[in-house]
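Researcher: Next entry in the queue.
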Amino acid sequence: MSRPIAAQPQLPLHLIISEKLREQIASGEFLPGEQLPSEHQLMLHYHVSRITVRRAIANLVSQGLVVSHRGKGVFVKERRKMTRSLSNPLIFFDEDMAQQNASASIRSLSFEVLPAAPTVAANLQLPPHQSEVYCQEKSNFSR
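Model: Structure for this entry, 143 residues:
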């Protein structure tokens, strides 16, 4: 029997669910071309509303991991291996991806000033009076 998911501080439920599904896709639990559970099944499994499930699925779609077909369901996309040729410096990254019928993007997810953890301060060799660092989280994906 499934249990309701425990909300992690500062993370919306739809992000927790999409991350769990992303991990299942990455681990091969859901293979390319395979259909994800239906909205209703996900609602029952995670004990959440339909809008929460839809937001989670939309997040996976925006990451390029799944494709949604109205009336049919949500399917895991085929993961293609991208290659980058460093032999010709005259070809820019975006042109190289376009030649492979793909596009890539980088999105900033968060940017904040945080207190430096002791190990981080040591690795960065921060002076004792400096206690804050910038933390930026990015996401990149290809389509």
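Model: The helical segments are 13-26, 39-46, 50-62, 93-99, 118-123.
Researcher: Noted, moving on.
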